[in-house]
Design brief:
By secondary structure, this protein is α+β, with helices and mostly antiparallel strands. The protein has one domain: 4-Layer Sandwich (CNF1/YfiH-like putative cysteine hydrolases). The chain is about 20% helix and about 25% strand. It is built from seven helices and 17 strands. The strands form four sheets. Strands 1-2-3-17-7-4 form a six-stranded mixed sheet. The radius of gyration is 18 Å and the shape is globular.
């Protein structure tokens, strides 16, 4: 296991990973990038499916989310989330608005959340898209965002950093950790997508390489491989962060540990589960 990364087989059941740079002293800040292991779902959703919008049993999903929260010492009703839309929208949970974020039926649309409140678990879902967790341990401010390519290109990472700074975080003290997601070797994209991203973000050129398995024409490779974690790192640097880390796990390549939307599509499966990542503070 790379330095700073730890696997946890929790007594609650779920298996998750953490990064030492996000942990606060005496567990003041706790977090977990959860795997698919340790839940109650079966079949395509085996076993820790936390996707509220999936066709899995709502009872199973609620149980899985409760188990995930319990692994970090959180009661089920203290887990906050969003209706994720691949946007650049980041919202703030405060004492006046926390109720709507804590209720799965009233969670707002968006892809990033930040807070300075204690005992709230900010939860992000994904199955190839990146979960990105943030903390300013000195200021006691935490954040999380869901960064698929559309959201990342639109600025969800930068907006999450800005939202944290708006409530008192400092760029020099913030830590950003990129969680499990699809990696470059597994992420084939079209030339149209390369053009779109490169036009909007010229500094992303180094995130693309020709796919060795793709057809090569006079115009070049027909498909490329996209480094989404690398793109997220660049976005964090663009936002002014200096303490950026990542986990080495490719959700597409590791079916034993992770759900993957792209893998399910390639296998002809109708759906897949969703992984949860959570950060909370005392």
């Amino acid at each position: 296991m790379p330095e700073g990364i730890e696997r946890h087989d929790s007594t609650a059941g779920p298996v998750f990973f953490s990064h030492a740079e996000l942990q606060g002293k005496a567990d003041e800040i706790r977090h977990g990038f959860f795997t698919r292991i340790g839940g109650v779902s079966t079949g395509l959703y085996d076993s820790l499916n936390c996707g509220l919008g999936s066709a899995d049993s709502a009872e199973n999903v609620a149980k899985n989310r409760a188990l995930s929260g319990a692994a970090l010492g959180l009661a089920p009703e203290r887990l906050a989330g969003l209706y994720q839309t691949h946007s650049a929208d980041c919202l703030v949970i405060d004492s006046q608005t926390q109720t709507q974020y804590l209720n799965p039926e009233t969670r707002p649309h968006g892809d990033g959340l930040v807070t300075c409140l204690d005992n709230i678990g900010i939860a992000i879902l994904g199955a190839d898209c990146l979960p990105v967790l943030f903390a300013d341990k000195k200021a006691g401010i935490i954040g999380a965002c869901h960064a698929g390519w559309r959201g990342a290109v639109s600025g969800i990472i930068e907006n999450t950093v800005d939202a944290m700074c708006a409530i008192g975080a400092h760029l020099g003290d913030m830590v950003m950790v990129i969680g499990p997601g699809i990696h470059q070797k597994s992420y084939q994209v079209s030339t149209d997508m390369v053009t779109e991203i490169s036009t909007l973000k010229p500094d992303s050129a180094r995130c693309f390489m020709p796919d060795p398995s793709a057809e090569v024409t006079a115009e070049g490779a027909s498909h490329y491989l996209f480094d989404l974690p690398g793109f997220a790192r660049i976005a964090g640097q663009r936002a002014g962060l200096h303490h950026i880390h990542s986990l080495p796990f490719d959700t597409y390549a590791d079916s034993a540990l992770f759900f993957s939307h792209r893998r399910a599509t390639h296998l002809g499966e109708p759906e897949t589960g969703r992984l949860i990542s959570i950060i909370t503070k005392k």
